[in-house]
Amino acid sequence: MKFRLILFFILSYTSLLAQEEESPFPNVTDSLYREDQFYLGVTYNLLNNKPNGVNQNKFSSGFHFGFIRDMPINKKRNKAIGVGLGLSFNSYNQNLLISENNKEINFSVINDDVNYSKNKFYTSIVELPIEFRWRTSKAKEYNFWRIYTGVKFGYVFSNSSKYEGEPENIRIKQIDSFNTLQYGLTLSAGYSTWNFHLYYGLNPIFDNSNVNNNPIDMTDIKIGLMFYIL
């Protein structure tokens, strides 16, 4: 079911790109102008709905970039629908240890008396953002206000976890417990170059996983800056 959803959105995106690039407003000056078709973002990643005893530590980062097809829907071209494709790389520093025993993945909370220097997991994601876009821009005006809101779908094509400490270092790749399909709500707002960005995850990072007999229903919240390029 997850892969069917991903395939549906990818095919929809491809269909949009295949359409002829004709202006819906042939009599309007600068009728072909579009905005913000490339994006680059940096975020601080927070874990939401953490199980008892699980805490974040150090800095958890995210880097995001991609292309969005800007499709104006009004005569002024200051309202648009954006459909894109991009990549996202994320790390999460916390005290939830992921280990492996006889090819079975186990989750446990690291005790406070354990000496360790690093414990984090990583995700690499293909993103499909869909946005409703409002801005005060004009064809030859580069500093303007914008509010973009929508939903973002992601396919986790790579993941790993890394632990460095007592009694031994642990590194695991391609963990089946990760939810391969991620989705959440997005908001970007700001003026000119600097734009606040928020992603609020709606489904768990891990699929059917437990720690201390409690389900791991953690979602992620990404807060940071988004930069747009014409």
Automatic annotation (TrEMBL):
Query: Which Pfam families does UniProt cross-reference here?
Result: OMP_b-brl_2
Superkingdom classification of source:
Bacteria
The signal peptide stretch is 1-18
User: The Outer membrane protein beta-barrel domain covers which part of the protein?
Assistant: 18-207
Name the keywords, alphabetized.
Signal
What is this protein's record name?
A: Outer membrane protein beta-barrel domain-containing protein
Query: What organism does the record attribute this protein to?
Result: Mesoflavibacter zeaxanthinifaciens subsp. sabulilitoris
